[in-house]
Design a protein that fits this description.
ten-stranded parallel β-sheet, 18-stranded parallel β-sheet, 6 helices, Elongation Factor Tu (Ef-tu), domain 3, Immunoglobulin-like, single chain, about 600 residues, Pectate Lyase C-like, mainly beta
């Protein structure tokens, strides 16, 4: 019996170990990521070229240039006047300054607008509450430049490669081009009618006369890229091709563009809430933060409650935005289409990480024809009302990495859903995700979707259609050798950059928690400069102090670490607050 048990144990271990691998991507003996190509050269693409400054520089700490206190009654003028005052200040290295909104409730019955670069709205943690009090649908904070990108049409050249595979960073263009290193370009994929027929998107009206068939002219999708190298007619791009360019089904073009988008704008360290009259009220705050015509911006440590649509909405003319350590809890709306998209990315090269949601519908989602890469990393969704992932009409190049949800995680052909959603996306990667229901379908030809290291039932049978199963590897067993595909790809890409560029922390203060989620204790690492009267508290999601974390310890300037006991704290979502005379900040902590 002992012998049989030993054999069973060894076999189980071998199955477990063999499950922690992928035939498509692995780490070689030198610690380098290696990719396996198919017969056409398609590989898993590098998704890491996303976020503020392409994730090559840390988010800066912006010094306060104006301090604001809440006033009685409506605060629209109070807040907007402060923004306008800072907007009139000079730009210095792309920054004007931060506005510190002191603790208090800032009731606002209509939108406030940031339309100039280099402005940061910063609160004092949960104690600062921007509150939408209007009784119509509106977006409370709008970061929106007055203009966006302009293509330089005379520079356009056709891509001449016989086949451009997924994941490549090199393309060939026709003779006579004017592209040089450092140019920003659109790599545009223009499909033809044969591609529409291939996907079956010409038959949607057969399913529902009210649906809309896809047309090739509506699916010209442009991908924003920087040229890193020019060798004759061969261009090397800073991020890979995210969709097959096969002359049978599509042509490709490269064209320069100029950008007038605003930059270095942010919302940090506050609570944003909306009033409402009932659980289905839709005439109230709709989006807490909306971003468009903007690049290299960020939203950090923002918790939103009760908005009907989203905490952060990144529209199609925004790029290189990082959303970090934010949450959207308990949206208020009818639970139906076009509502409760908690973190919605329609822009490109954006990063949403370390976020939480509760009672959303499409909690982490990309919209129609969204060009990748875009990344959702290390996020959780509870009490889901619908699926996570690309929503409709051919979003491409999205990585959902270490996403945990209790409900649906899907990439599928939605057929005549809505007005004809059709294929929600392609080149979508689910990596080390956990979900109660995973649907992954593969589009025809060389388009691909992957689920690698995912935990949960996986099927190719969707709500509307059944198609071939996408590529599934290490089902039910996470890839422990590559815990995060995003982090592994980012680390490898940054190896060629200077150490100071990728490691310098410019923050005047920083707060990190390990591990997170935590169980019985948490290690708190603090970086501070020139602070006094420092306190460290654990607060619940309503801002109530649960316990002092350093009652008998002095927190000093510089680097400090504290092991804090959590055995007397119930499971749930909390915030660790770091308070001083000169700053307040907080970081979300999940206790299991």
């Amino acid at each position: 019996m002992r012998y049989l048990l030993a054999l069973f144990f060894i076999a189980s271990c071998l199955i477990h170990i063999s499950g922690q691998t992928s035939t498509l991507i692995s780490i070689d003996a030198n610690g380098k990521l290696t990719y396996t190509a198919d017969e056409k050269g398609n590989v898993i693409p590098d998704f890491s070229g996303v976020g503020y400054q392409n994730s090559e520089k840390p988010i800066p700490f912006v010094s306060v240039v104006k301090t604001v206190n809440a006033v009685a009654g409506d605060n629209v003028a109070n807040v907007q006047n402060a923004i306008n005052e800072v907007a009139a200040m000079p730009l210095i290295n792309g920054i004007r300054g931060a506005i510190l909104f002191k603790a208090g409730t800032y009731a606002m019955n209509k939108a406030i607008n940031v339309t100039a670069s280099g402005i940061v709205l910063r609160g004092e943690g949960l104690a600062t509450n921007f509150r939408a009090t209007g009784t119509v649908q509106y977006d409370l904070i709008n970061i929106n430049g007055n203009s966006g990108k302009t293509e330089i049409s005379a520079s356009q050249k056709k891509i001449t490669d016989i086949f451009v595979p997924i994941g490549t960073k090199t393309i060939t263009v026709e003779n006579g081009h004017s592209f040089t290193v450092g140019d920003w370009v659109h790599v545009r994929r223009e499909p033809n009618d044969a591609w529409i027929v291939l996907l079956g998107m010409d038959k949607l009206t057969d399913l529902d006369p009210l649906a809309t068939n896809w047309t090739a002219s509506s699916y010209k999708i442009s991908y924003e890229r920087k040229i890193l190298k020019v060798q004759g007619n061969v261009l090397t791009l800073d991020a890979p091709i995210m969709d097959v360019i096969d002359p049978v089904y599509a042509n490709g073009y490269v064209v320069k563009f100029s950008s007038a988008r605003i930059q270095n704008c942010a919302v940090e360290n506050m609570q944003i809430t909306s009033t409402y009259t009932s659980s289905t009220d839709e005439n109230h705050g709709w989006k807490a933060i909306s971003i468009n015509n903007a690049e290299n911006c960020w939203v950090k440590k923002v918790t939103a409650y009760s908005f009907g649509y989203s905490c952060v909405f990144i529209d199609s003319e925004a790029a290189f935005v990082t959303v970090d350590s934010c949450a959207h809890y308990d949206p208020i709306s009818v639970i139906d289409g076009g509502r409760r998209y908690c973190f919605n990315v329609n822009g490109e090269r954006c990063l949403v990480q370390n976020c939480n949601t509760r009672r959303g519908r499409h909690d982490y989602v990309d919209g129609s024809r969204t060009p990748g890469p875009n990344v959702f990393y290390n996020c959780a969704a509870s009490l889901q009302n619908a699926d996570l992932g690309p929503h409709h009409r051919w979003s491409t190049g999205i990585l959902l990495d270490n996403i945990i949800g209790n409900g649906q995680l899907r990439v599928q052909d939605r057929a005549d859903s809505g007005s004809g959603h059709g294929w929600s996306g392609s080149q979508i990667m689910f990596w080390n995700c956990t979900a109660g229901d995973i649907v992954i379908q593969d589009p025809p030809s060389y388009h691909r979707n992957w689920a690698i290291g995912c935990i949960g039932p996986i099927t190719n049978v969707g709500q509307w259609t059944t198609h071939p199963l996408g590529i599934v590897e290490s089902k039910g067993v996470k890839i422990t050798a590559i815990p995060s595909l995003f982090k592994a790809q980012l680390a490898e890409r940054l190896k060629g950059l200077s150490t100071s560029l990728v490691s310098t922390n410019t923050n005047a203060f920083d707060l990190k928690l390990y591990p997170n989620p935590a169980t019985n204790q948490v290690l708190i690492h603090i970086i501070m400069k020139n602070a006094s009267n420092v306190q460290l508290k654990l607060c619940d999601v309503n801002g109530k102090c649960i316990k002092q974390l350093t009652e008998n310890q002095l927190i000093t300037t510089g680097n400090s670490e504290f092991n804090c006991d959590l055995t007397d704290v119930k499971s749930g979502v909390y915030f660790v607050q770091l308070l001083s005379d000169s700053f307040n900040t907080s970081s979300k902590l999940i206790i299991q």
